[in-house]
Amino acid sequence: MAEQAVTYSTARKWLISVTVMLATYVSVIDLTIVNVAMPQMMGTFGVTLDAITWVAVSYSIAEIVMVTMASWFTKLLGRKRFYLYCLGLFTVASVLSGLARSLEMMIITRLLQGLGGGALIPMAQAIMLEIFPAEKRGTAMAIFMMGVVLAPAMGPVLGGWLTDAYGWPWIFYINIPIGIISVLLVLAFLPEASYYERGLARIDVLGIVLLVVGLTTLQLFLERGEREDWFQSTFIICAAAIALVSLTALVLWELWVEEPVVNLRVLKNLPFVGGVSMGLFFGLTTFGSIFILPLFLQQIRGYTVLDSGLIQMPRMLVVLFVAPIAGKVYGRLDSRLLAFFGTAIMMAGYLDMSRFTLEVGWERMLPGLLMTGAGMAFMFSVLSAATMSTIPPHLLIAASGMFTLSRRIGGNIGYAFVANQIMHRSTFHRARLVDHVTPYDAETARTLDGLTGSLTARGLPPGTAESSALQLLENVVDRQATMMAYNDVFWMMGMMFVFGLPFLLLLGSGTSRATRRG
Fold this sequence. Notes:
mainly alpha, Growth Hormone, Chain: A, about 75% helix
């Protein structure tokens, strides 16, 4: 990338960084913060669990559409004005979400929240890359990473505390003061970007329609697939077909039209393609683990929502220590080696988690949590800086939007993959265990006799004690099968990076100043 035209003072850089990261953090945290409040919302709205999931799905759909369209809106309205519009919409929608007392109203306000919050993420990344010089972009991406990776992990913890202490509306009301402060900071410190061309000769209506339809149906396919039993559902089949046709048509149209709503021409840049591809794997494993770890801690180990969040805290804290280190070494060593180093640590952490047991304590969990957190911080900081290093300033938001999109789609695939594999691998292991749990197996017979004797000693009649012993044994088999399924999924998440490693070779070395490319 060419040397930027404007040089910012150190104080100005950090004021702008705080400004954009504050807004980014709350927009990202809203992806997960509502999950723990859904049981209370069900009672307030009087709806089923299946219906309440649309509160999360609606935000996700709107957010992913706006992530992709951020560059187009910036060109249409100007960066600073569009950023203020997004912040204002997000803040007002947060107020309305807290006041909502019907499911329909909540879904509408969450859509508005997603529309406001989605564009803040790629714009923040582009701004951070713009204000820091080339040799400091590793540090910039380390700061950015703390928001986009820590926020989803913090969401359930913060949401659980606010819901228990004050009620579910406060998971939205907490955004109000942050939104107001962010607006004031943007007005005071965020500069307009002179190199963005303002205005459009024509509106790419067909591109917008194809984009919205394609991403919406893709999100519905990924978010609802497991619940609807995938291709056993006509709804899921239709969603998949519409997504495939719409997104294929979008690619063909956007490559032909002069002023596309999505600038796919950035994909001519091979280092960028490598980074986007690795971003998909990063999103899959990171968001998959954010989904699976609380499930494991709460369902298998029996921890409360708050306690499970506290147990995961070392994973978040190590990010704060490692990310700045990764930022400092970026540019001094080959980016491909640094990204590989972070990937290897993440793989080692997931493989360590694949050896957890039903009795695992937090001390045994700590190495895996620390390794995945450290690897995540190292890989993402280096990967982001290297991926964007050859993108010219006027394409930064477009490229950042695509990079963010790859992580978000990867994350949605991760959610769907984890939920699907936990169910199917549990069934598989249960069938194998049951084959060995028979009256003719000596160990099984001894276990049943011991359980029956223990229950009889506690006063249960012999017949009741025997049936209760069988039920207890079945529960043990179910828990062990589920534990083995979790081990399998942790192992799979570690090994998935093997498929992504070839894409690291496409990244630039990052050891010399990037050159400007159109």
